[in-house]
């Protein structure tokens, strides 16, 4: 089983997670820009974070045979903080970089006017840079938030096939499907979706335009949920080719629209990393081995 996790926040995960993910079949991932868990106090906090996404974290993932990509944006939660919105002027510098495969996460958190302004501006940037957009749907008022999301996407002029609307469930999936956007599902231990509900959705509506992710971050989450979803698909009677389509070929098709995927030709990602390699003088190793 080869896996491309299209939404996982590896900056908040450990090297043990990278090792376990590789062992489970993960060979590529996309890390969306998101919030820190506490308020940022300046735009400089974003630029340091963005630099890490396109630099150190890509290096760290490569040490475990995983191709790391990212998306760049002002996330919806921080769009409500006036100390953060000036980062919108900085985004173009990063949206032009290699390995940045979408604008995201954008969208709604609490459905505020400030969030909508930031969302609209960043959809404009996606059009300008000819990049896909990764859209976060709110945890509350999800149906209303998804409806307004689709209205703004239509108004933006960005093609529906260039948009993934994420964190969907049984209530919101049909309207996103009808709009022609890609459908993203975050598989969590306790909230959002689990792998068995995901399998039921796949059985009902098919495999087209579906992205399955772990959305693992610094909270209670599981970076192996993509692999567990693949196993659940096999148990339910899906073929190995079906699993490969959902967990590998679909994310490659969606993010490939950026023209910036950095995948090995055979998709294996099994190149042997140089354990002594460094990034700007830093290594994942700690001390010498006697």
Describe the protein.
With 290 residues, this protein is of the alpha/beta class. The chain is 38% helix and 14% strand. The protein has one domain: TIM Barrel (Alpha-Beta Barrel), CATH 3.20.20. The chain has an 8-stranded parallel sheet with strand order 1-2-3-4-5-6-7-8, with helices on both faces. Helix 8 (195-205) links the parallel strand 7 and strand 8. The longest helix is centred in the middle third of the chain and has 17 residues, at 113-129.
Radius of gyration using CA atoms only: 18 Å
The name of the CATH architecture is Alpha-Beta Barrel
Strand order of the largest sheet: 1-2-3-4-5-6-7-8
Residue ranges: pLDDT <50 for 5 or more in a row? none
Q: Which strand-content bin applies to the residues? A: 5-15%
Largest sheet: 8 strands, parallel
Cα distance, first to last residue? 37 Å
Give the CA-based shape: globular
Order of helices and strands: EHEHHEHEHEHEHEHEHH
What is the averaged pLDDT score? 92
- Number of contiguous helices: 10
- What name is given to the CATH topology? TIM Barrel
How does the helix and strand content classify structurally? alpha/beta
Assign a percent range to the helix content: 25-40%
Q: Any idea what the CATH superfamily is called? A: Metal-dependent hydrolases
Number of strands: 8
* CATH class term: Alpha Beta
Structurally, how many domains make up the residues?
1
């Amino acid at each position: 089983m080869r896996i491309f996790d299209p939404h996982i926040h590896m900056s908040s995960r450990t090297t043990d997670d990278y090792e376990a993910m590789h062992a489970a079949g993960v060979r590529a991932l996309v890390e969306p820009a998101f919030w820190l868990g506490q308020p940022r106090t300046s735009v400089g906090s974003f630029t340091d974070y963005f630099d890490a996404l396109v630099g150190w974290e890509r290096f760290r993932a490569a040490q475990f045979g995983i191709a790391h990509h990212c998306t760049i944006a002002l996330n919806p939660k921080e769009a409500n903080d006036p100390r953060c919105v000036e980062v919108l002027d900085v985004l173009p510098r990063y949206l032009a970089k290699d390995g940045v495969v979408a604008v995201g996460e954008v969208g709604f958190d609490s459905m505020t006017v400030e969030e909508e302004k930031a969302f609209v501006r960043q959809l404009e940037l996606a059009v300008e840079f000819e990049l896909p957009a990764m859209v976060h749907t709110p945890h509350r008022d999800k149906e209303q938030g998804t409806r307004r999301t689709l209205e703004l996407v239509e108004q933006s002029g960005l093609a529906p096939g260039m948009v993934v609307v994420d964190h969907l469930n049984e209530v919101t999936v049909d309207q996103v499907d009808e709009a022609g956007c890609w459908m993203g599902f975050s598989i969590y231990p306790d909230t959002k979706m689990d792998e068995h509900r995901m399998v039921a959705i796949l059985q009902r509506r098919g495999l087209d335009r579906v992205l399955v992710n772990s959305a693992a971050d610094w909270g209670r989450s599981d970076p192996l949920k993509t692999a567990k979803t693949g196993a659940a698909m096999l148990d339910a009677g899906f073929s190995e080719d079906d699993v490969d389509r959902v967990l590998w070929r679909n994310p490659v098709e969606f993010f490939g629209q950026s023209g910036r995927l950095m995948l090995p030709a055979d998709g294996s990602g099994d190149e042997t990393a140089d354990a002594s390699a460094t990034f700007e003088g830093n290594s994942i190793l700690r001390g010498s081995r006697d």
